[in-house]
Amino acid sequence: MKNMKVYCVALVLVLAFGMSSAARVPRVRKHYLKFINNLNNKVLNVNCKNLNPYIDLNLHILLPSETYEFNYDITRSMQFSCDLRHGFTSKVFTVSDKATKRACGGNHCIWTAKDDGVYLLNRKTKQNKFMYGWGK
Among residues 69, 127, 131, which one has the least CA distance to residue 100? Predict the structure, then answer.
């Protein structure tokens, strides 16, 4: 019986220590981005970059109906912007600011390129919102 008490005390200490050390580990949140090419028989070029620290995700060429996805750990210094191009038109915009995250309904943002511009899906309302027209 004495051994059983020792094992119980040891178990309680191990559980308590495990819980307290787990509470100190910072939770890393991720931001997820997806780009969909819904252009009418046109290729979409997607190039996303972060300036500080410099990260270039390189050019991704999407054929009609193709998608490109990436994610990153959320930190204060991460400010990704993406350059979407088709033909002679393009649009560069920030994808990691708080307003954009609010507009997409969280940390999973889905961008759709259409012939008239770029749309962002609000995952809570399931509505695509027109965000940007194509520049020349």
Answer: 131
